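in:
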């Protein structure tokens, strides 16, 4: 079974500088750490990311770290639904 995200990995998500680095590196990091749930990333110019935790606490920790990244959450979060479902929209034409 995949290891839980480390304290350092969660800190990297929370502290990711979206203005300086752009959001796509953070999307890749989340993709690489996501486990035992569902992650769907579609689109080219506009990226749609769906995260479904399936109750795994490691994924819930990743969501908490994303919520802690105020810039990312404020600009890209679109919706969430009870049960661990989250949707994001990233317009890559407007970011670094």
């Amino acid at each position: 079974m995949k290891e839980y995200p480390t304290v350092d990995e969660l800190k990297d998500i929370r502290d990711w500088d979206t203005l300086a680095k752009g959001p796509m590196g953070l999307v890749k990091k989340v993709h690489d750490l996501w486990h035992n749930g569902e992650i769907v990333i579609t689109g080219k110019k506009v990226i749609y990311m769906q995260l479904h935790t399936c109750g795994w606490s490691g994924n819930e920790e990743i969501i908490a770290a994303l919520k802690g990244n105020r810039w990312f959450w404020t600009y890209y979060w679109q919706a969430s639904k009870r049960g661990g479902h989250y949707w994001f929209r990233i317009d890559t034409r407007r970011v670094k």
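note: Residues 7-94 form one domain.
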